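> example.struct
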């Protein structure tokens, strides 16, 4: 690695959250039910039996949370809007109280000099839409465009960056194939249909954005990971390439080239699944120029030929590497690899790392949390991120997941990712040592 210099002055250092994971107030002030409300309320779906009903109570504590961010010194805050909070049935009647909450939040951020970065869809679909087919249905695609229009018209000029979807791969395949997320389906065909519709919905939202033409910029966030074959054997290399097609190229190719990867179209067809290539009209919609690509980076995958029923791959779990509490390998170089690859193969105008972070079973000791391993994780990823700038890749910002511990989906409150510790019994916020580490990084724009 080269000389360690300074991140540019306009580089955004931020933190990220998502509505269902922090807000709570699940049925307050006219909010409609989301698929995550339904999923978490169904016994057996969440590891520790908890729900996001209260979560971090951010709906009521947002002012305190913004004050913490100000103390941290971030220049941007990435959060998502709960669709059923503003449109309880997914479309039609607007819940003014829901919009008012986000207006208050944006106002507070403005006062604090923090740029709002808003995700339209971070997984909490209105249950009313799910009841009519959810993302498998075109109705949801159309409703998403209208929901986007409402948000652009209401908050357009106050939002710095808009993100259409967060991690469509997770929505499609964890929610509809593996069934570990809402809506909890286990149907690969349904997942393919969902993935296709998510891309179309993204395209519609971008089109509406260009029409409304607010001040900010628009993009999408993908979860991307390097996929490495376990051995150099042909079979393992093929399996790794297929897994890469499943995870990375399945979204990158349509967004930047207008079509699903040919090898995946062929592979899925051979397996008996229906996946319609995009028509010319759809291609133009899905591959509209974006202002930026958001990348969530946590880990890599090491893949071999294996027993996974659809993909016929297997994931190698090397027992000799460091892992987070999620079981994800700590692989800091991957942030460089993925930025380099995406820049070379797809040429996005700008890249933001919209999430990166580390889960650890933190404990409070004498009123503080000494989360050394999180600090090491963040430092090593920032070191490699800095190398992407040295190499001239267009990375303009980095967001830590997360400002505070929160509801980690199917794992409930059993996984802690925060820079701030949450005592869920009292809702007390206690900055961990990593909070002060990140504050120093931001202050100096450097990791030295
Ligand atoms: C990502 C999600 C985010 C959070 C982190 C740990 O996949 O976007 O909501 O749960 O993982």
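> example.seq
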């Amino acid at each position: 690695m080269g000389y360690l210099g300074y991140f540019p002055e306009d580089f955004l250092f931020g933190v990220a959250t998502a509505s269902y994971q922090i807000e709570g107030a699940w049925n307050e002030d006219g909010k409609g039910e989301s698929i995550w409300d339904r999923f978490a309320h169904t016994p057996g779906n969440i590891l520790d039996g908890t729900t996001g009903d209260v979560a971090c109570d951010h709906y009521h504590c947002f002012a305190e949370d913004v004050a913490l961010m100000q103390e941290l010194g971030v220049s941007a805050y990435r959060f998502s809007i709960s669709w059923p909070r503003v449109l309880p049935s997914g479309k039609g009647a607007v819940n003014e109280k829901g919009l008012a909450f986000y207006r208050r939040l944006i106002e507070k951020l403005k006062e604090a000099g923090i740029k709002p970065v808003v995700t339209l869809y971070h997984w909490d679909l209105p249950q009313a839409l799910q009841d009519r087919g959810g993302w498998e249905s075109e109705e949801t695609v159309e409703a998403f465009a209208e929901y986007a229009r409402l948000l652009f018209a209401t908050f357009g000029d106050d939002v710095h960056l808009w993100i259409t979807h967060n991690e469509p791969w997770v929505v499609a395949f964890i929610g509809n194939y593996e069934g570990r997320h809402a809506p909890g389906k286990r149907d690969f065909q349904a997942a393919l249909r969902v993935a296709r519709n998510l891309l179309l919905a993204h395209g519609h939202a971008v089109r509406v954005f260009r029409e409304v033409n607010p001040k900010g910029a628009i993009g999408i966030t993908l979860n991307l990971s390097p996929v490495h074959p376990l051995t150099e054997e042909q079979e393992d290399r093929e399996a790794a390439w297929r897994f890469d097609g499943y995870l990375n190229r399945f979204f990158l190719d349509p967004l930047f080239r207008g079509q699903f990867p040919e090898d995946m179209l062929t592979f899925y067809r051979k397996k008996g699944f229906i996946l319609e290539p995009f028509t010319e009209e759809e291609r133009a919609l899905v591959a509209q120029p974006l202002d930026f690509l958001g990348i969530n980076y946590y880990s890599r995958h090491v893949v071999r030929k294996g027993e996974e029923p659809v993909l016929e791959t297997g994931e190698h779990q090397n027992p000799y590497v460091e892992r987070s509490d999620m079981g994800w390998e700590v692989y800091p170089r991957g942030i460089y690899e993925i930025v380099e690859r995406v820049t070379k193969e797809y040429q996005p105008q700008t890249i933001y790392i919209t999430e990166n972070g580390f889960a650890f079973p933190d404990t409070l000791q004498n009123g503080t949390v000494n989360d050394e391993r999180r600090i090491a994780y963040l430092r090593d990823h920032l070191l490699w991120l800095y190398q992407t700038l040295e190499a001239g890749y267009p990375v303009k910002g980095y967001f830590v997941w997360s400002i505070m511990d929160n509801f980690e989906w199917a794992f409930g409150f059993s996984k802690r990712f925060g820079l701030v510790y949450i005592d869920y019994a009292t809702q007390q916020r206690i900055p961990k040592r990593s909070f002060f580490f990140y504050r120093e990084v931001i202050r100096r724009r450097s990791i030295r």
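> remarks
The first strand starts at residue 12 and ends at 16.
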